[in-house]
Amino acid sequence: MRNGSVSSRSCPLARAAPAGRLGKFFDALLWMARTGAAWRDLPEQLGKWNVVYQSYAYWCGKGHFERFFQGVQQPDLEEVMVDSTCCRAHQSSACARKTSRPQVIGITRGGLNTKIHAVCDALGNPLRFVLTPGQRHDSKPVPELLEGLQAKALLADKAYDSDKMVQAAQKQGMEVLIACRVNRKKNQRVQHTHRYKARHLMENLFQRMKVFRRVATRYDKLGVTFLGFVHIAAP
After folding, report:
1. Backbone angles phi and psi of 156, in degrees to 5
2. Is residue 20 very low, low, confident or very high in pLDDT (cuts 50, 70, 90)?
3. Number of neighbouring beta carbons within 10 Å of residue 2
4. Locate the Transposase IS4-like domain: which residues (predicted)?
5. Which of 86, 153, 220, 226 could be 175's S-S partner, Cβ–Cβ 3.0 to 4.6 Å?
6. pLDDT, tens digit, for every residue of 82-115?
7. DSSP letter assigned to residue 97
8. Alpha-carbon distance values, 125 to 60, 78, 128, 153, 174 (Å)
C-alpha cells in the first residue's frame, strides 16, 4: 500500500481484472479489506461507496470470488494441511437482519467471533475456506474441506485427532500425520516429526491473511460478504 491506496499487484483477483472500471472496483475492495474502514469512508476516487457495496454483495451472492479463487489454483497435493483461526466480530457485525441464511457468528468466552477453517496444499497455498460460528469444534467442517481432494497425506494438530477423522482421511487414501492427543490410549500412530514441521505453512497463511484488517476482525454483518473478503485476502 502506498499513499493510502492499495496496488492491484497485491491480490491475484486484482491482477486478473482488466484495466478500467473493473480494475477500480477491485482496488476499492482491496482498500476496504486492508483498512477495515466503513463503506461510507471509501475514497471518492475509488467510486461511490453504495455502488461498490451493492456490486460486491451481488458478486458474493453469486459465488464469483470463490470461483476466481479456485480458478487460479495449481495445487501440490503431495500433502494437505487443515487448521482454523478465530476472528473477533466487531459490534457492527452483530445486528444483521434475520434471514434464512445463517451469518456464522458464535458466542464464546471471548465474545462474538467467527471461525475460519482452511485447507492448504504442500506449499502452503490455500485451497478452500469454510466459515462456522466460533464455538464450533475444529474438526466438524473437515469432511467438507477435504471432499474430492486426492492428496497423499493429511497434516493437522491434536484438535483433529479423533477416530472418525482418521478413518475418513484413510478412506480417501491419505496417510494420516495428525499429532496424537495425550490421553489417546488406542491406535497410537508413529509421529513423523520432520514432516509434521511443515505445518507451520498453515500458520503462516493465517498470519498473511490477517494483515488485512477486515479479515483479522469481522466487520461484515453477512457471512457471505465476510467470506468474500477472506478469498480476496488469501495469497
Report:
1. -160, 165
2. low
3. 6
4. 78-222
5. 153
6. 999 999 998 888 776 666 577 889 888 888 999 9
7. P
8. 22, 12, 10, 15, 19
